[in-house]
Structure formats: structure tokens, C-alpha cells
Amino acid sequence: MNLILFGAPGAGKGTQRGSLIDTYQIPAIATGDMLRAQRRAGTALGDQVTSYMDRGELVPDALMIDMIKERLQEPDARTGFILDGFPRTVAQAEALDATLDQLRRRVDAVIYLRVSRQVLIDRLSHRYSCRSCDAVYNFTPKQALEVPRCTVDGGELYQRPDDKPEIVAHRIDVFLKHTAPLIDYYTTQHKLENIDGQMSVEDVRADITRRLSALKKGAGSR
Ligand code: AMP
Q1: Which CATH class is domain 2-115+179-221?
Q2: What is the pLDDT of residues 84-120, one digit of tens each?
Q3: Which atom of ligand 1 is closest in space to residue 53's alpha carbon?
Q4: 33 CA: nearest ligand 1 atom
Q5: Which terminus of the chain, N or C, has fewer Cβ atoms within 10 Å?
Q6: Does residue 222 carry a catalytic annotation?
């Protein structure tokens, strides 16, 4: 399966991708995590993208497209992938289609997690991330008074600078302006699975599983 997890920041993409990895045994390719790893490692690319990320702006298409082209050709991505955070512009989506075409592959489904602006803002203001592995946690205001360590690797949990309220509002605007046009792009390709991302984590997971099973069945009977 070649999947795209699609939605605004805070829509629940990171939360849902774990169960997709387990179910389909394919890697998640999360461009935000990849960029943060570059920053932690202090690479030239990491330096180049820092100011865009901290301001909540998109990193230029050319950088993102080069990064994803290389990643898609690594051995673990040959049997499938879950893209999280890419594509974010029509130019990125077109470049992805062209790259997959060359590899004689295609996107099978785009899972769009639909969430209202207010819910996105509420969620992101309670979101903590692990400094070393990027695992994400949502705490209630009470839980946030005593933030534990990451349960994956014991790393320190922190609030990402771009999860601050003024940057969050800008990231949502950037999503609406540059990324939301992909809803039409993938609807035209009959690939969009439009899911209510405000249901419980379990209900969203069940809806995704049901739709992907139906797709697989459909593909099998063709
Ligand atoms: P995320 O972790 O997906 O919220 O991404 C964090 C930040 O990384 C974004 O606000 C952008 O600055 C940058 N970024 C991640 N993916 C992309 C992309 N596909 N295109 C442009 N910028 C990106």
C-alpha cells in the first residue's frame, strides 16, 4: 500500500500512523520528523530549514521534493509507505506522481483527517513532543503541570516552538492556502478518503481500517 496521511497540523496524522505501520508493515515517512532530525544532527539542510520551520512557513518545494525522492527509493519503502506531512503543495503532489510513475508505482489512497480550526488549536496547545524521537503526546492542562518522560525512549518532552498559539494560527492559514487545494487534486484522482478526524482515536482508526480493507478488496476483485 502506498498511502498519504493528509490533514492540517493537529489533525491526528501522527497518532494514526502507528497502527497503519503495524497493520501494513510499511514505513512511515514523516517529512517534519525528517527535517527535525536534520536539525538535531546539525546538517547543512537542517540549518537551511530552521527559520522556515520556526516561523510555521513551508520549506521550499525543491528541497522537499529532493528529500522525498531519495527516501522513496530506499529499500524499506519499496513494498509501500505512509507519507505524513508530504505533499503539502500541488507542486509537491505533481512531483510525487512523476517520481512514482518512474518507479511504476502510484498513490493508492489519501486519508484526509478533517478537523475544525478550533479543535486543531485546542489540540496543539496541549501537545508535547519528545526531543529525541518526536513521539507526540496530548495532555490535559492538569496533566501538563507534571509532564512525564517519553514512554518510547525516556527523552524529555517539550512544546515545539511552532506549537505556540501565534505560530499555530499561521500554520493553519498556510495549510488552508497552500495544502488544502490538494483535496481537489486527489478527489479528481478518486483517491481521497474523507474521514471525520474529530471522532475518538479508536473510531478514526476503525474508519481508516474499514476503508482501506474495502479498497484492498476492490483492488483484489479487479
Ligand atoms: P510537521 O511536523 O509535519 O508539522 O512539519 C513541521 C514543519 O516542517 C512545517 O511547518 C514546515 O515548516 C516543514 N515541513 C514539513 N513537511 C513539509 C513539506 N512537505 N513541505 C514544506 N515544508 C514542510
Answers
A1: alpha beta
A2: 999 999 999 999 999 999 999 999 999 999 999 999 9
A3: 12
A4: 2
A5: C
A6: no
